[in-house]
Design a protein that fits this description.
This protein has 16 helices and 12 strands. By secondary structure, the protein is α/β, with parallel strands linked by helices.
């Protein structure tokens, strides 16, 4: 099911179906995200005319390209390589004409990779805010609202700089609800949020602001808004969505004899809280045959969050799965998997993990206390200790979290 989900959102499949027509003038390819290099490679292989450009992707996510330069940079905390690449991308779209085309390739991760600080700010300012947002449990929509207002390229500023050229953005969605103004902080999309919204988010999570950050939030240099004429020639196309991955997984489940139930493609909340809900639904299947009698595959996507309280290792999918394992307490007949579709769960080297009815007992046999490790945010440590991590390496796509719970027919 995981393989089917990833295959459905492979840039090699999705990009060629949505390429625009050739322009009279130049074609400039720019982009950012964990899938950006694979998207660029697909463009090169199917573009019938001349082109050049630059995309930035996460370290280890690059692929060979001939005409489009690929730069690798840090994610989720930005670095100087990302800042330099973002500056070059912004300059590359300036001075174009109405006959030119900017083909922008955007996927999850673009927000941290396009780390071009707004006037008056430094890369260190952006790094400080990013680290705080990652630790506090903020939703991706909140994180990217703040990021837009600290950026010289996000929140529609890239498209504004490219005007009057035509801008076509091919987007792989990794956000709940597929809001293109949130994906990668919307570099080519008008921004409906404001500095007041960004300030309120920082206040909500008690994020400390340096003097330069406070001055920026008091600025009148707003992001371009809906109705701005510079977006008149900008088009956005969603080429892959979390729902596409879930539907492909559902088809695989049917082929294997399980009735798929898609619980949602945009579930949010604390990972351990979402896990409790999933555990309850799995038990309802076993006890009452609802919403479907077993064998059932409960499938969900979205982006959970983790508020760090401990010092352990583990991304949100490992946290979800460990909380689910604790909640199910060895319930027979239930197996589960939770992975990030980009192949990297948080900042670790695994995509996620897999669990079954024997996971707690195997953990105890290895001296692992699942409840204590959950309290320490150490999902990675638990599943590494029972050799149940899932390591895919970079998948070069990104449609957010993928979770599946298989509920077997009671004996």
């Amino acid at each position: 099911m995981l393989d089917a989900a990833l295959a459905a959102c492979n840039p090699a499949l999705c990009v060629p179906l949505h390429l625009p027509s050739l322009p009279k003038g130049r074609t400039v390819v720019v982009g950012a995200g964990k899938a950006a290099a694979a998207m660029a490679q697909a463009v090169e292989q199917h573009w019938p005319g001349p082109l050049d450009g630059l995309v930035v992707t996460r370290y280890g996510h690059g692929v060979p390209c001939q005409r489009i330069e690929v730069v690798e940079a840090s994610h989720p905390v930005p670095d100087a390589a990302g800042a330099a690449a973002a500056g070059r991308i912004l300059e590359s779209v300036k001075g174009l004409t109405r006959d030119d085309l900017v083909l922008c390739l955007v996927s999850g991760g673009a927000s941290a990779l396009l780390a071009l600080a707004a006037p008056g700010l430094t890369l260190a300012d952006k790094q400080q805010v990013n680290r705080s947002l990652l630790k506090c449990g903020a939703a991706i929509s909140e994180m990217n609202c703040v990021r837009k207002h600290l950026s010289a390229i996000k929140g529609g500023r890239l498209a504004a700089a490219a005007y009057p050229a035509r801008v076509v953005s091919l987007i792989i969605s990794d956000v709940p609800g597929d809001d293109v103004s949130i994906i990668g902080s919307g570099p080519t999309v008008p921004d409906p949020t404001s500095f007041a919204d960004a300030r309120a988010i920082c206040e909500k999570y008690k994020i400390a602001l340096s003097a330069s950050l406070a001055a920026r939030f008091a600025s009148a240099d707003e992001t371009p808004k809906p109705g701005d004429p510079r977006f008149a020639r900008a088009e956005t196309i969603l080429i892959a969505r979390p729902q596409d991955a879930l539907e492909a997984a559902a088809a695989a489940a049917r082929r294997a004899g399980y009735q798929p139930v898609i619980l949602g493609d945009s579930l949010e909340g604390e990972a351990r809280d979402v896990a409790l809900v999933h555990a309850g639904i799995a038990r309802q299947v076993l006890r009452h045959g609802q919403p479907q009698p077993a064998p059932v595959a409960l499938i969900s996507g979205g982006e959970t969050t983790v508020t760090l309280r401990g010092s352990g290792r583990g991304g949100r999918n490992a946290e979800f799965l460990l909380a689910l394992t604790v909640a199910l307490d060895g319930q027979p007949g239930i197996h589960a998997l939770a992975c990030d579709t980009d192949g990297i769960d948080g900042t670790e080297d695994n995509a996620g993990a897999i669990a079954g009815p024997d996971s707690l007992a195997r953990g105890r046999a290895n001296g692992l206390d699942a409840k204590a490790m959950l309290a320490d945010n150490d999902g990675y440590g638990f599943f590494a200790g029972i050799d149940d991590l899932i390591v895919t390496g970079p998948t070069r796509t990104n449609v957010n979290d993928f979770r599946v719970i298989l509920v077997e027919r009671p004996a």
